[in-house]
Amino acid sequence: MINSIEIFTGLNKCVDFLTDLDDTTVFLIVSREIDQQDAVLLESLSQVKSIYVLHCDKTKNKQSIPLCKKVRGIYTNMKSICETLKEDIRHSNRNLIPMNVISQTSAINLDELDPAFMYSQLLKEIILDMPHDDNEKKILVNFSTKKYADSHAQMAIITEFDQQYDKPSPVWWYTRECFLYWMLNLALRTHDTETILKMGFFLRDLHCQIERLYLQNKPCNPLTLFRGQGMLPTQFEKLNKSKGGLLSFNNLLSTSTDRQVGYLYADSARQNPDLVGVIFVIDIDPSVSTTPFASVHEHSFYGNEEEEVLITMHSVFRIDELERIEERLWQIKLRLTSDNDPLLTRLTECMRDEIGGDTPLYRMSHLMMLMGHYDKSEEILQVIKSTISKKDEYLDALLNYQMGNVLLAKGELNNALSCFEKTLEFEQKMFLPDDPALVYTYRSFGSVHDSMGDYKQALIYYEQVLEIQKKLLLSDPLELTGTYRHIGVLYEKMGEYSKALQYHEKNLEIDQKYLPAIHPNIASTYINIGSVHNCMGEYLKALSAYEKALDIQQKSLLANHPDVANTYNNIGAIHNKTGAYSTALTSFEKALEIQQKILPSMHHVLGITYSNIGFAYQSMGECPKALSYYQKTLTIEEQCLPSEHPSIASTCLNIGSIYLLMGEYSNALKYFEKAVKIQEKSLSVDHPDLAVSYNNIGLTYDKMAKYSAALIYYEKTLSIKLKSLPTNHPSMAIIYNNIGLLHDSLGNYSQALSYYEKTLQIQEKSLPLNNNDLATTYSNMGSANNSLGDYQQALTYYEKSLEIQENLDPINQQTLSNIYCNMGLVYQSMEEYQIALYYYEKTLEIEQKYLSHEHPSLAITYNNIASVHNLMVEHSQALSYYNKALVIQQKSLPSIHPDLAVTYNNIGMVHQSMGKYQTALSYLEQALKIEEECLPPNHPSLNITHYNIAEAFEYLHQYEKAVEHAQLAFDIAKQAFEPDHPEVIENEEFLRRVQQKQKATLN
């Protein structure tokens, strides 16, 4: 059917419109002369299926109009176009019938059907079981009227349907190929449950008529049917490799007893250059197959024109043989079979039992929830509630319980809690405190408190459930798994990982013993196990568990199910931690694509995915993008979650981390402290998440040169981690590394080296030998040795780091460039300037290839190259590179970022070396202005800038100002460093020198 008509007077506007369309089939009528270039352009658009040229000028030769494969013909009037178009649309709809192909040689099981087949089967069963309702037709008519309000032809048919539905038969209406045919097939193809439910009575009547005709006229002998259609080359290629495999259809299948009818459809399809024409030759042995089918020529809208046989939904065929007839035209022999995937069959039975329920409508609500259609599930429950008697307290409690579960899945926690409270109120009147009927409600209370971040209260409820279950000596061990699952997840959130893993492994043991191998609950258990391994830093184990979960979900859930999105998120997080940032981003975007289709825009789960995408961009150095995603997360969480929820704290930490990277230290501290305030109220004093917050505050104070404060927070972090984590946990290495970096900043290089060695000992035990974090530690040890003047030892560590990087697959380009940079610094310290320049240029080569042209890391490399040219007294080249660095920083950093001050300082010092002291002063004063705004008053960078300004004034013989700045430099050095630090000694000597020059001038 045609959903809309768009008219354009110019080709460019038409092309712009077409290129913005996704998953849309376009039939294009061109009513003006087109040249060869236009024809090629239109041919290239994947959205355009067919082109019809209206050529009214009979004086012009048709041969002058260029033809392309998509041009269906040249017509002299619209009537002939409409006739062709109508037939083409009919064929197009036929080609859109979805199918699922399982190859005999595929990596998955031979008889493994798409999970959509199972869900639509369950959906059909429930619809067929629903009692007749006189209001159903009215609902469908109103629904269809809204859809086709702009189509006069369809509105007339809808009116006819409303008034005369019972006179013809359901088959007659379906074969008419009007709004009913289009809506039903589209809904079945796209799993549009809203439309399927509204068409439920028609689907039921149609199936029952086919089944009735099948039973009345069931053939005794085998027969052969034919179906012609087009297939995409990729789809056909899969089918071509699947001899002996299965082919399933969720939709009704139109076939014919006349081979010629099948041939005509197949031949017509191959006229489209994007399709392969196929004739399905279907053999049916009535003694084997139980799938209903019926000859409908006596009941069809088209009469006996096509000798049509309709096969009802959920038909499964064995692929026997493929034979090429002509170019792009194939014959495929199929056998209708009752064979099914044994796993999927068992899972369907299991799901059927799980859905349960006294009424079809209640079962439908439960099915909608399992499929992730939470709004539809809630809507059905509301319908049921409106029809029950207020005196039926039992059913009311049951509906409140189910509604609570739906609202919990939707993230409406307070409303969910209210529903569970109503259920519990009824149950406490009816049952004893340890009655098994209370188990599900207590467990749901635990889930809500868990989601609210109230872990202690959640644990009380879960333990209450477990106590009841253990008293009962359950005959069905599966009853325990839900409780084990919840307790395990809770212990993970509380930082007690070994307990969490213990409960999840108990759960898995029961699941694997009593459930089908592809049951979604087993996937959930693998997810939980993966999550604990992730928290414990065992990333390969975590990834393995997540991939097992995804494999099960892809076989048992719909493609757009929320759980599939969650698993993509988990897999992305692991890739991000192992440095595979682009792979991580791809996984996160897959998750987001699913969630945006099925969740409200302010759902808290969307916030998690936005946060993950932000983290990927942060890892890639794209701070503004990362910040925008983190802020999206915070907006959602502040609207959806309680104000003291731990997730809000996590997001504040992420935002603080970005501000830290951007040099906005006061903003970073604000968000880190906000996170700590929430965590200290909602978490235990030794929770690992508090350690993360303390560590970040320590990092910020470190950057602000408030080293004493930084050390206090690092020690708080270390204290928590020593209590809550194994001694060789990778997180222990992180805090030792940070303390080492702090001592490095203080000039305590030997102490720094001592902490780096502790870091290394942990990493060598807990990480693979070829690990990016290990390479970073070797690099830090190289830096400390460089500062101690042990250049050969520094190079040894850098070479170890380089060896690891070169053996990684894929190579972490960012770390590799850092190693080259550090090796350049060592050779620069050794005054081997040409070698230093060689390594800086290798760094630059990588960064220009993998980073944006305005990435801050490029500016650092330009600064390093410039510094070597300056040392080689190549001032013009030095200035050129410093200016390149400055241009990048002015575009990519805040105007008061400390890195900008460093570059202004460097440019000033080059001008000073060239004897341009006034120019030097102007740059140095710009550096000072930035540093005074963004750094604490005792920061070492301020010491350097005051020192450089004092030198410039000394060269200008302005000794009073020189003494003023030299004094400030000395005062800062005394505050920032220990009394015997080389910086303090040098600053004191410099101050004495300029004071003597000032005195000499005064005398």
Automatic annotation (TrEMBL):
Keywords recorded for this protein, A-Z: Repeat, TPR repeat
Keyword Repeat set for record: yes
One Pfam family hit: TPR_7
Coiled-coil spans in chain: none
InterPro entries: TPR-like_helical_dom_sf, TPR_rpt
TPR repeats: 397-430, 439-472, 481-514, 523-556, 565-598, 607-640, 649-682, 691-724, 733-766, 775-808, 817-850, 901-934
Signal sequence range: none
PANTHER family: AAA+ ATPASE DOMAIN-CONTAINING PROTEIN, TETRATRICOPEPTIDE REPEAT PROTEIN (AFU_ORTHOLOGUE AFUA_6G03870)
The protein's name in its UniProt record: UDP-N-acetylglucosamine--peptide N-acetylglucosaminyltransferase SPINDLY
